[in-house]
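Whether sequence alone determines local backbone shape is best considered at the level of individual chains. We regard such an encoding as a compact summary of how the chain folds. The sequence in question and its structure tokens are set out directly beneath this paragraph.
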Amino acid sequence: MARRTGRPSYLSDKADVRHRRATRFVAVAGAVALVTALLGGLVGYQVGRPDATEAAIATIQQAEAKRDAQQILELTGTARRVRDQIAPVLAAIKTETSRAPDPGQARQWQEIMRQAAEPFADPPSGTTATNVARGGLRAAIQQASLAVDAYALAADVPAAQRAALLAVTARQAAQAVTMWSVAATQLDQVSVDAGHGHQHVFLDTDSHEGALTPDGAPEGTGG
């Protein structure tokens, strides 16, 4: 029987070398891919992570939002108290234009207006929206004070000029109500934005006079 002939030894050696090279190549490629993935993840984390400046800004914004929400609560309470002070005065001025002014009544109303203005004398600094609401309320009180001062002046003028001055007084009172309604609308909006819901701090008035009126949403809802 003839002897089977195997592969020459030099061919076997070459095959083994090629196999070892292929194995090393696969291992190296796998290691490179793993390192690349790790580096990519690290870079992505570093890029996506907020830096110290961004984190500081976010902290400041959160603190400002919390402070503003508290200011809105305080401003709403102040507005309710002031409204209850000035509403009877403004309503009375409109009915007093048909008779001679009472100097004693005028002095009493002037004192009420002085007290109403006190909470707005040194206002805190808040967001722009809250500052607008506060400034509008303050301006309305100032306008109401002008109406009361005009009423007081009417007590000292001759009867012939009194009617015209009282008519101006009534117009100033109506303007004060309108200005208050605009500020109250702004306060209602910032209250909703701050999560406190609708807060309708409006003066009772005739809608035909041009003043804004509450939106009809239930009190405290919508926050």
Q: What stands out?
A: The first helix runs from residue 9 to 48. The helical segments are 9-48, 52-95, 103-117, 128-154, 159-193. The radius of gyration is 39 Å. Confidence is low (pLDDT under 50) at residues 1-15.
